[in-house]
Design a protein that fits this description.
two-stranded antiparallel sheet, 179 residues, mainly alpha
């Protein structure tokens, strides 16, 4: 969980033609499948894409990430570029010690949306409580489950013949036979 503090400030509401005083507030943020799902339902596009987010989209994702209750909605107007950078660094953090080799980690070019991740959770029997985890940690768990569920690679004919030959030789020596 990331905490960012938005300092108090005076804002001007051009629609109501009045000043608004916003008190300093600390936002507790969680980059989770729940937040991703909320954001995608608003913007109707995948969050996990190479396409850069606009400032407005980034602020809106912070709104979706917020787990603190009773936040003044005007506080989101005071989010700075440095706050977005902090959140961005938090989103990119792996949140786990697990690593994968490049061949294990290479994903096909499938567009990953919240529904795809929910499908993976269902297919791998991952409990829905995990939807509140940091998203990178959840994706790592999905990747681990996929790797552990893969059948072992088949040996090539040459490797199989070599393996069987070594077994036969060991048996000959154990039983003192010539073949």
């Amino acid at each position: 969980m990331l905490k960012i503090t938005i300092l108090s400030a005076e804002q001007y509401d051009e629609i109501k033609n009045e000043f608004i005083n916003s008190k300093a507030q600390t936002l507790q943020l969680e980059h989770s499948l729940v937040a991703l799902s909320k954001w995608e339902s608003i913007w109707c596009k995948p969050f996990l894409s190479k396409e850069p987010k606009t400032f407005e989209e980034s602020v809106d994702y912070i709104r979706c990430m917020t787990v603190t209750q009773n936040i003044d909605p005007n506080i989101y107007n005071l989010i700075s570029q440095s706050d977005i950078l902090k959140v961005s660094n938090y989103i990119e953090a792996p949140m786990t010690a697990t690593t994968f080799s490049k061949s294990e980690n290479s994903r096909n070019r499938e567009v990953i949306t919240a529904e795809v991740i929910y499908y993976w959770m269902i297919a791998l029997n991952i409990p829905f409580d995990c939807q509140k985890w940091h998203l990178n940690r959840l994706l790592t768990l999905i990747n681990v489950c996929n790797l552990k569920n893969k059948p072992p690679k088949k040996m090539s004919k040459k490797a199989l013949m070599s393996h069987n030959s070594a077994l036969n030789e060991a048996r000959r020596q154990a039983l003192n036979t010539k073949g």
